[in-house]
């Protein structure tokens, strides 16, 4: 599991003063990027050296409570399931000061050949790190 903190800036909010719904997807994207980074994988290096990219295939998201300007949020990322050419992540955004989950999502990410964008096997060195 991985956890990062994200500060809500004014630009993240809508006219009602709460985080605009699409920005939650940006926050969880950062969480997945940092998850890979913590395992030792930079996405630009994966393209150059292993010819792969990870792309979102599907998202099931639940917006539970609003986040507001200047909140410090925590983004939790964990792998729920590993498949041959995809990973299923469970991600949550929490407001630690309120001890509440604001957003949760199940996100399927496909491993793709960086040249033709066709699904390909997740490299074994990545699977080894994910499996710990």
What's the short story on this structure?
It is built from 3 helices and 5 strands.
Layout of helices and strands:
Elements: E1 2-7, H1 21-38, H2 43-50, E2 52-63, E3 72-82, E4 86-95, E5 100-113, H3 124-131
Antiparallel strand pairs: 1-3, 2-5, 3-4, 4-5
Pick out the low-confidence regions: none
**Which strand order do you get reading across the main beta sheet?**
1-3-4-5-2
Q: What's the CATH class, please?
A: Alpha Beta
Query: Quick one: CATH superfamily?
Result: Hotdog Thioesterase
The H/E string reads: EHHEEEEH
User: What share of the residues does DSSP label as strand, in percent?
Assistant: 35-45%
Task: Output the keywords.
5-stranded antiparallel sheet, 5 strands, elongated, alpha+beta
Report on the architecture of this protein.
The chain is α+β, with helices and mostly antiparallel strands. It has one domain (2-124): Thiol Ester Dehydrase, Chain A (Roll), CATH 3.10.129. The chain is 26% helix and 40% strand. The chain has three helices and five strands, in the order E-H-H-E-E-E-E-H. A five-stranded antiparallel sheet has the order 1-3-4-5-2. A hairpin with a 4-residue loop joins strand 4 and strand 5. It is elongated.
